[in-house]
Protein: N-acylneuraminate-9-phosphatase
Amino acid sequence: MRGWGGGRAAGRWNVAARRDRMGLNVRAVFFDLDNTLIDTAGASRKGMLEVIKLLKSKYHYKEEAEIICDKVQVKLSKECFHPSNKCITDLRTSHWEEAIQETKGGAANRKLAEECYFLWKSTRLQHMTLAEDVKAMLTELRKEVCLLLLTNGDRQTQREKIEACACQSYFDAIVVGGEQKEEKPAPSIFYYCCDLLGVQPGDCVMVGDTLETDIQGGLNAGLKATVWINKNGIVPLRSSPMPHYVVSSVLELPALLQSIDCKANKRT
Ligand SMILES: [Mg+2]
Structure:
């Protein structure tokens, strides 16, 4: 068994030294951010609960408060953002404005929409933290392989999350889909990540919770392996892309990487 513990980190960009020292086959791990390393869905729910409290206590809304938040949630899930059209703040404030108007009727209330949006956003960001055990896992893993954060989404939104969870120092590089020509699952963004680290796709593992982007992208780019984080035990559709490995928590990754490595060694 190749060890994943112990040893001090090699130079920040010195992938070859890290690999040769341990004889590892995996040279880099690409991590998704939302619902892989941070609980984005849980943080968003807490944001919605704060808005419900605000609407009930300050504006005396009753059951409409929940209806408005449900409507916003649906709009967020269907969101189609093109940076050339609008800024994300305008777009998301409009979700709140429309949801309030659809529920309460009357004239549009941009001011209330802004208050709701900023409360939701600030509460959500406050709850976007890297858990201590995730930090420890990343620190240990980085002693052996390069780590890269690969997240889809609008530049401003994702950069605010990265800042909020203070994850920058755990990675050799951070790549935000909204800052690139194409996002996951396009192979080009994975090749860009490989180039940044000076590694080949066959040296890399992609870890993420979304089959259509993280796993499909890793498969499209010909990575060594894809690892699906399936926290809720979802049964995928038969047509879904098939990951190489499935785990219920990102914390299972070090042991899994060790087994990937052993298999690779046996083949050679
Ligand atoms: Mg995700």
About this structure: The chain is about 50% helix and 10% strand. The longest helix spans residues 40-57. The CA atoms of residues 14 and 114 lie 46 Å apart. The pocket of magnesium ion is lined by residues 32, 34-36, 208-210 (CB under 6 Å).
